[in-house]
Amino acid sequence: MATSTLLPTTQRVGREYRIIDYMAEKDKGFDYFYDKMILKGYRYGKHYHPFDIAFREMGNMGLSRFESFEKLFGRNTIVKCPSPQQISPADGINAVRKFLPMCLFDLEKTEEGVDALDAYTKIWDNKLGTYQNSPRHDWASHPADAFRVLAICATMQEQIETRQQRRAPGSGLGSKRRPWGRAYT
């Protein structure tokens, strides 16, 4: 069975996400992508990974993808995303709809990924005269899933950072302890 690895590369500037590059290959291991990432010359920050980063790869010295990334990029750069079982396809698609307006794409370097997002669609049911609830599974599915993981993880990470900023000493938000008690006596 062929496995696909898709890597959209983003820059976060304020609330804007710039999708600056996109790599997609089948049946390539971690070492192949690491070499390609280094050759790109980007300075990497956070790496958003799907749930399967914990899997071990053949030919990777018995290390999981997580352990390899941790060794090469550092522990604080990895953001593990929820598994598909934790977030329904409908919720993931909704996350992408909310995320897309915050994105700018380098149309040359991300053409393949953008084409896949454009082609991602639901299945039309002629008998019922409506779309089915599930998306069509074709060549556009894997790139769309990779973007869905990005949208979910980036949004979750942004929410975590916002909460941390609000709780930071001197922020004026959440830094003071408040007494707890009954609302009604």
Describe the protein.
This protein has 185 residues and is α/β, with parallel strands linked by helices. It has one domain (4-167): Nucleotidyltransferase, domain 5 (2-Layer Sandwich). It has 5 helices and 7 strands. It has helices spanning 30-40, 65-73, 89-99, 111-119, 141-167; strands at 4-13, 16-26, 47-49, 78-80, 103-105, 122-125, 130-135. Helix 2 links the parallel strand 3 and strand 4 (78-80).
Can you tell me the CATH topology? Nucleotidyltransferase, domain 5
Helix proportion range? 25-40%
The CATH class assignment is Alpha Beta
Structural class: alpha/beta
Which descriptor suits the 3D outline? globular
Question: Would you tell me the overall average pLDDT?
Answer: 80
The CATH architecture name reads 2-Layer Sandwich
In the sheet with the most strands, the strands line up as: 1-2-5
Give a short account of the largest sheet: 3 strands, mixed
Record field, number of beta strands: 7
The helix tally amounts to 5
Q: Work out the strand percent.
A: 15-25%
List low-confidence stretches: none
Termini Cα gap: 65 Å
* N-to-C SSE string, H for helix and E for strand: EEHEHEHEHEEH
Radius of gyration: 20 Å
Our count of domains comes out at 1
